[in-house]
Design goal:
The protein is of the alpha+beta class. The protein is built from eleven helices and 19 strands. It folds into two domains: 120 residues, Peptidoglycan synthesis regulatory factor (PBP3), Domain 2; 245 residues, Beta-lactamase (3-Layer(aba) Sandwich), CATH 3.40.710.10.
Amino acid sequence: MKIVSVIAAALAALTVLNTAASALPREEDISAECAVVMNADTGTVLYEKNARKQRAMASTTKIMTALLTLEAGDPDRLFAVDSTAIRVEGTSMGLKEGDIVTRRALCCGMLLPSGNDAANAAAVNVAGSISAFAELMNRRAAQLGMKDTHFVTPSGLDADGHYTTAYDMALLTREAMKNEEFRRICGSEYVVTEFGNPPGKRTLRNSNKLLGMYDGCIGVKTGFTDNARRCLVSAAERNGCTLIAVTLNAPDDWNDHRKLLDSGFEGMKRYDIQLEEFSAEVAGGTADTVSIVPAETLTVGMTAAEAKTISVRYSVPGFVYAEVSEGEKLGTADVYLDGRLLKRVAMTAARDVQRAEPSHGLFDWLKNILNGGFMTAFAKE
């Protein structure tokens, strides 16, 4: 195994441009009982206040409900809402018995006006019942590492055993924002969709005032019940970096999020991670070697402290057999952040190498094998 430090040095050169630490708010400056700010690119927590304390989360629950509904597929298939499911208290998208909807429309209804009717209707349509859907929610939460969360209702209405933490909600939101349709819907100040009997155009407006109050805000979800009090999950972009902020039981949530996001962005910038190129010998080809290059350019929004912990481990072959096609995957580059896998990038052939007509004797063939070696792992840290 060979240790290479070229990339680490390149990152260090970038970090000197951004060494100032962000001025994180004091706990007493944030009204929320529980709060967290997470780097969406890396999953690193930049700020926390009682971030792992279990609390009710009200309609921020609908982040999970909408994600599962979109992941279930068939977003534009028409169906009639379950008449029992839509008989629910609280906020509504305006569904009536016999209405024809789509799953996409229900996601708009639960994420913008926070329709409890939309959440229940989606749950029954996806899983057959609210209790069965709650099982899906808890299964997905376990997959995401939400260790301190348990779902009972798809709407977020108060129920025994329905709770989460600010940290777990940030994990969920980081995953949900990878879904392009979820991201589009929750970042819209209003959406024109269709539902009814017969379906007609309806305009749904977003209850998330932060979309119009904070420059770069791209979502995500509000929430309120008598037990949970004011809850808010937000995401914002600035200079190519994305942050997620969560507050639970926050009397002054709009201002909390502006403070949290502003302080988080102070220490953020976009870093280019320069991945190495390698050369492998080609056995039986029209060329002796082929270059192995990264399949994509990798840029990550992070703090200077995070950038200093970046390392890359390469797994590439010392030789390959012809023929080789341009773009063919020949290995991997695993990018680590503080020892945690952040991204796996494919290492691919830079060009075609055709198979040559046999002309070498046994001695030359064995020489190629011995010189090339077997699959070799290169590490850089």
